[in-house]
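Hi team,

As requested, here is the filled-out complex form for the TXE run. I kept the field names the same as last time so the parser does not choke. Let me know if anything looks off before we queue the next batch.

— J.
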Amino acid sequence: MSDEPFQIRNFIDGQFIEPVGGKYLDNIEPATGKPYSQVPDSDARDVELAVSAAEKAFGDWSRTPAADRSRILLRIADLIERDLEKFARAESIDTGKPLSLARSLDIPRAASNFRFFATAILHTENEAHVTDGIAFNYTLRQPRGIAGLISPWNLPLYLLSWKIAPAIACGNTAIAKPSELTPMTAYLLCEVCREAGLPNGVLNIVHGTGPNVGAAVTAHPKIGTISFTGGTVTGRKVAETCAPMFKKVSLELGGKNPNIVFADADQDAAIAGSLRSSFANQGQVCLCGSRVFVERPAYKDFVERFVEKASQLRLGDPLEATTDQGAIVSKTQLDKVKFYVDLAQQEGGTIALGGAAPKPPNERCQSGYFFPPTVITDLPVSCRVNREEIFGPVITITPFDDEEEVIGYANDTDYGLASSVWTQNLNRAHRVAEKIHTGTVWVNCWLVRDLRVPFGGMKQSGVGREGGEEALRFFTEPKNVCIAT
Ligand code: TXE
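And here is what came back:
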């Protein structure tokens, strides 16, 4: 075993190659705070190589029959499942999330993303319209060309596959830029794609920072379609670059999601569901319900029981089987979480649970980035902690007195990604779901995902929808052919 850290390579034209500039960044393991590998610090020159490869591959790939594209994507899904443990371990080490979560959620969902789109393209329907006595119109949905796919660090393989699968299933070629914080599973995916027989240049992965590589992908004139998932601040930069170039853009951004618990709800289910929606992946999921609102008659009991359950979540080394709460992805993100907990106390909040960095879970994790599940009460609804995305294991719980009041609270945010409503009153469930301004409303559940439904946010949570038919429409260009009769 050499002393040199393992160096990830870019994957361009079916080959693993060094960055043109020969520079690398340390890839830090969140659980230890120490580098465990290196990732290419690529730049626009590497993006140019990837564009050439994607351009060269587009002709044949776009003309490949859907059944053949489907077969390759199904093979990719099978190989991800074959190598599940290898992917899950890499994901856990890279992100700090519990290995159990990577094994049960992230990696299986990545395989299902490939499988879903591999079969979806076999059943697409194209419209036809007869203009009486004059013409016959039909719609051709054609691949758009090279797609630029930029993904974040929180669900690395899950969100990257959510973009790669539909993009290439539709006959496009792709240049993907994973987060520089969590590159490992993207690297392993390239090995699997090559083994599955994906032709060279169909998928190219260029590793590196946002400003050096992400910005180059976004600005490249030959990359006409951009699918971005990340923070709202960065999403705005992507949109500003794409707008004057008339690129097709999908933005899946941040959230500050309401989780509303009515007094008539099944409180056991609401508490169990709220624990997951509050602290899954250390609260680093854009869909987490970080603003909990509880109807006053149930409020005191909910807070007591929720805090008790949350105190039992086991914070530990992500690689240990008993761990429920792993490490925060980076020192930067940990500092952001600590900042908001301090701010909450300045804004008058009460720390009902957590609130301070814990002792390291073991010797190996002495210098890791850990923060316990934290519950804050007694905050004003419109304070900064209740308006700004924290993206960590920190939630607020606030009482409310009636439906109109809580809908006002829920909608009083710049975001509009997702929400949960817990009630056993069916009429109220439909009424509230209709009035909440979010792209997804879960009733008596959270993170139940059906890949056929449109998925995305309103307001500053994003533009466009991914998933299902929406994704197939996003990654294709409809052309109307009108034939005079
Ligand atoms: O996101 P960034 P980060 C939120 C969350 C988090 C914040 C920042 O609040 O604290 O975003 O997280 C690439 N042009 N979400 O730093 O910076 C970057 O390299 C093109 C919500 O991860 O948006 C990475 O690959 N690309 C989100 C990707 O963009 C650029 C999940 C995301 O990085 C770029 C993650 C640029 N100028 C964070 N700058 C969600 N909705 O799930 C950076 N990138």
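Two things worth flagging: Residues 6-253+461-484 form a domain with the Aldehyde Dehydrogenase; Chain A, domain 1 fold (CATH 3.40.605.10). The chain has two domains: 6-253+461-484, 258-450.

Thanks,
J.
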